Amino acid sequence: MAKPRIVKLFSAFVLTSLAPASVALDADVSGVEDEVADNVVNYLAGLDAAEYGRQRLEAEIDRRIRDALKAFGYYEPQIDIRLQENGNVEQADIDIQSGPRVKITELAVEIRSDAENDDAFREMLDNMDLKEGQPLRHDRYDGLRSRLSTLALERGYFDSRFTNRRIEVRPWQESARIYLTLDSGERHVFGNISYEGSQIEESRLRNMLSFETGEPYLAGKLAEYNQRLGETGWFRSIAVRPRIQWAAGSVAQAHRNWWEAVDRQSTATDPNGAPDAGSALLAADAISAAARAGSERPPRVPVDIDLIPADRHQFEVGIGYATDVGPRTQFSWEQPWLNEDGDSLNHDLYLSGPEQEFSGEYLMPLEDPLRDRYELLYGLKNRDIEDTQSLEASIELARRWRFDNGWIQRLYFRTTYEDFTQADQKDQILLYYPGISWARTRTRNPRFPTWGDRQRITLEVSDQLWGSDATFVRTTFDTQWIRMLGDDTRFIGRAGIGAMSTDDFSNIPPSLRFFTGGDNSVRGYSYQSLAPENEEGELIGGQQLLTASIEGQRRITGDWWGAAFVDTGNAFDDWWPDDLATGAGLGVRWVSPVGPIRLDVAHPFDSDDPWRLHFAIGPEF
Known about the structure:
By secondary structure, the chain is mainly beta. It is 12% helix and 46% strand. The protein has seven helices and 28 strands. The protein has helices at 34-44, 54-70, 119-126, 138-154, 202-206, 219-232, 251-254, and strands at residues 5-9, 25-30, 78-86, 88-97, 103-112, 161-170, 175-183, 189-196, 235-242, 262-264, 281-282, 300-309, 314-322, 326-335, 344-352, 355-365, 372-385, 388-402, 408-422, 425-444, 451-462, 472-485, 489-502, 544-557, 560-572, 581-592, 595-604, 612-617. The strands form four sheets. It has a 16-stranded antiparallel β-sheet, with no helix packed on it. The two termini are 55 Å apart.
């Protein structure tokens, strides 16, 4: 027997001097449960007993309950309503015997015209949740109709219409017959593409197009192109609008409040600077009817692209704190476009106790601005960490490629001048060395990634044959992974490997030697404090590096997480290291509006320090 369900239905009070007060109705509903009972509750929720007399109220309750039950296929229920009153009706005891349930005995869903051979429609019909022999549920029928209409709009069937849509219910036979036919008409194709308001040469914008004139219309292509334009950083506002003429009575005409045009008033970005595709808006006014030659076949959809340039000068100031470097400040000056080619210039000034750096980059996009470009990087960096004092100036020219699989390849040539003191070594070194790198970052929810991974591989070569002060081959590999188990458990793993081959290590500047330890490597040890030492116990850096870490996190409540971790690693001269420094500890994470705030207490296993505190702000990637 179904358990009784008690539902209190409160109507709103109308507080005016002329209107009488509403009377709240308490209803005890029994005999049905789960989603059927929930639907009955929803149908009764708006009922105000003060608006009805006793007989009319009883009839209205009965009508609403029957409508709620029909939605689940119950057409012959028995309903017992007992009203209790004290001046006004205040209580209703309702017992429902739902009776037999209607089942689907015949299901005929058809797609006609061009969409008949469209794989997307075939897949939808193969996976629809309406089946013969199932109990009738009107929400599933309505859902199928809605999905077919939406798919037709997404895929350019703007003249589509339902030529047959009916349900024949025979309660005495406990049967329902469903007939649904969508005539899609012709599929539209993309027409002419026009630009308005762009300060960038049009050919560069066309090179990023995700569709071509004459290609079958697909709404996702418009959103994709909008995102590509946003990734360039050239524009403050982007609107990609198809101009569609719809036929009277079509699905498109019936859904005029829903359009697959993307209207972005301001280009949103995630914390990493990447565009946020979720910020795109679907706007009704994005589409206007346009005259189209009646004889043109297939029918074409012109696309208008309205652009507003981004501000030429953008400034940003950031402050933070980390145990490794203490308080830190960063000033950024960005010029997202300098000319019609889309060249950009960015400068950063980073200040902390042990490190100060000024850097700049001049980016020159090529034929496909999102994939290929030249990069000119330059900078000046001063470091005073542990036993390292270094002043470094560098300039780098690079060619960058971005591949379809997400990997980014950079081929570069770098010149570095470094005036340094490392322990008891003092020197001034000028290096010329080419390098190549491959990197890929994938992430979901950048502010606090729930899934992601990052890899980076580099290879650099220097030789005195071309005037460099040192000969070496240097390579590094770093990887990091984030995975979730359910909604409340998060795992992070990372590993790093570095190796260098050289016959004169004393000529290698500190910026190319290996050190480890600190917030993002081996916690429990201070920043870059792990490396080979000289006879006086001063750090001189290593030729090889190995680090690894595993961390498990568990949600405590809301945006608060607890963490436990183990880190290990060291820098050394001969592979394999004699000893790996290992630290373990516990931490807490708070997902703040500006990103995760991390606080860790770590214990080093082979150090005199009993524990060390680590604090940092910002996501792992």
